[in-house]
């Protein structure tokens, strides 16, 4: 790529106001996209490629990533007035859900007031002499704070866009995190807070936009996190142009350590194909967990509901049996620890319950009986309280780890206020865990499906048993 150093002020995205006394300019659920691109201004020099950048990026995200046309909004040229931009941001506040992610891309002129340090976006209808027509970067930050989205990523290709960041915050604090489930607020800007940036050769993309799209096109993984995107954009842009992009979390507006992920479209279709091929409850639950509003989410729910109907039918058809009185067990010498559940089995169980905690949305107590050995492993989980487990080969006091058993969100099952029987009282029946309160419905169905998940995912042939104590 040849270095392009424009000399025409119309090819730079910063506006120099006489009142600023600027020195010479020297050389970041559902997937939503809002693109604002302005080539034509009423009172400012025109730009070459702002509109093209927005359209090319939105097309790339629709063709290769998880952006759908119905979730794509663009405001271009004459439509990009201050009023229209603000109204659109207001409307997005009501459309975006708590599991959605939002990408806002602005390409246009920017302005820095040297006396106040304030940065601005310049709408198409702004007058040079009236900064009241501009949109403050602080206003954009306020909108980002109010969006209910899980992830919000702002990309601003304008001069002085680095003023979006709170000075002193370091990207290194969060750059290595790959936490898709934790809320995040990030921004990527084409230059530092006091930098002018370049629009590029007419008919092409700006250097900054080109580096973003190159990174997205070259990505061969199923997902690309924003930290990796930032690193590639900085490397490519800096090596060819005298400007330095910047990418950081936006602190003070809801960032909690997560990262925006660009998900490849092929990976979503591959995931659905793999789900259908597996044909298990576990696979469909995992698909719903990853894609609650995905293209095939309704089909996944229908599959799980059909399994539930089968279980209900089988349960209703089966003759009711009077439970036989449990024979008293002869006292026996405790088996040596080597005869109890193998450590590999215990590790598998721990992993199983940690994964189940992430798959669904409620807490429960269950116990599991390994069919081959007949040994019981007792797990306890609670909502709003300490969660612990009891294993025959583990010291209770040393291993109070937080493990929760989850049941099925698609069925609206809720189990709460459950506590393990007092450890101070001897248990007459050590094979059972007791509960003092349960609120919910379809308990048998939940336990059956948990058993199926255990078998499907971990090949652990288990029975899940529940013993209720009436208050």
From TrEMBL:
Residues 314-340 are annotated as: Disordered. GO terms for biological process: proteolysis. InterPro entries: Caspase-like_dom_sf, Metacaspase, Pept_C14_caspase. It comes from the Bacteria. It holds the Pfam family Peptidase_C14. One of its GO terms (cellular component) is cytoplasm. Residues 322-336 have a biased composition (Basic residues). SUPFAM superfamilies: Caspase-like (SSF52129). Gene3D superfamilies: 3.40.50.1460. Residues 36-246 form the Peptidase C14 caspase domain. One of its GO terms (molecular function) is cysteine-type endopeptidase activity. PANTHER family: METACASPASE-1, METACASPASE-4. This is Peptidase C14 caspase domain-containing protein. It comes from Flavilitoribacter nigricans (strain ATCC 23147 / DSM 23189 / NBRC 102662 / NCIMB 1420 / SS-2).
């Amino acid at each position: 790529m040849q270095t392009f150093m424009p000399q025409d002020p119309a090819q730079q995205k910063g506006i120099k106001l006489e009142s600023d006394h600027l020195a010479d300019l020297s050389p970041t659920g559902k997937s939503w996209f809002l693109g604002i691109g302005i080539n034509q201004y009423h009172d400012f020099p025109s730009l070459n490629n702002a509109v093209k950048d927005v359209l090319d990026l939105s097309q790339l995200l629709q063709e290769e990533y998880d952006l759908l046309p119905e979730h794509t909004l663009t405001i271009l040229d004459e439509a990009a007035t201050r009023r229209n931009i603000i109204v659109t941001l207001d409307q997005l506040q009501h459309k975006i859900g708590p599991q959605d992610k939002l990408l806002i891309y602005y390409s246009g002129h920017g302005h820095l007031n040297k006396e106040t340090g304030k940065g601005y976006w310049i709408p198409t209808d702004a007058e040079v002499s009236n900064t009241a027509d501009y949109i403050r970067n602080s206003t954009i930050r306020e909108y980002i704070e109010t969006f209910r989205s899980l992830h919000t990523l702002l990309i601003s290709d304008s001069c002085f866009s680095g003023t979006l960041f709170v000075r002193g915050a370091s990207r290194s604090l969060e750059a290595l995190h790959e936490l898709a489930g934790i809320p995040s607020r990030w921004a990527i800007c084409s230059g530092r807070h006091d930098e002018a940036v370049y629009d590029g050769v007419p008919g092409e993309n700006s250097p900054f936009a080109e580096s973003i799209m190159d990174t997205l096109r070259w990505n061969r993984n199923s997902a690309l996190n924003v930290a990796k995107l930032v690193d590639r954009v900085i490397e490519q842009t800096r090596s060819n142009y005298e400007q330095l992009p910047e990418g950081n979390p936006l602190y003070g507006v809801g960032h909690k350590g997560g990262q925006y992920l660009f998900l490849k479209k092929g990976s979503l279709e591959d995931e659905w194909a793999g789900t259908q091929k597996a044909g298990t409850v576990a696979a469909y639950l995992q698909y719903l967990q990853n894609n609650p509003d995905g293209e095939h989410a309704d089909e996944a729910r229908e599959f799980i509901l059909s399994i539930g109907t089968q279980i209900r039918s089988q349960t209703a058809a089966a003759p009711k049996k009077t439970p036989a009185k449990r024979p008293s067990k002869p006292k026996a010498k405790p088996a040596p620890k080597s005869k109890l559940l193998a450590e590999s089995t215990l590790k598998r169980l721990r992993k199983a319950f940690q994964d189940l905690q992430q798959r669904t949305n409620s807490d429960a107590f269950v116990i599991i009986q390994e069919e081959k050995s007949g040994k019981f492993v007792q797990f306890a989980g609670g909502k709003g309280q300490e969660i612990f487990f009891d294993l025959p080969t583990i010291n209770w006091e040393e291993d109070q780890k937080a493990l929760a058993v989850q049941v099925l969100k698609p069925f609206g099952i809720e189990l709460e206020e459950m506590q393990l029987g007092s450890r101070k009282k001897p248990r007459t029946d050590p094979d059972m865990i007791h509960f003092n309160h349960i609120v919910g419905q379809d308990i048998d169905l939940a336990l059956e499906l948990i058993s199926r998940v255990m078998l499907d995912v971990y090949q652990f042939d288990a029975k899940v048993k529940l013993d209720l104590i009436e208050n």
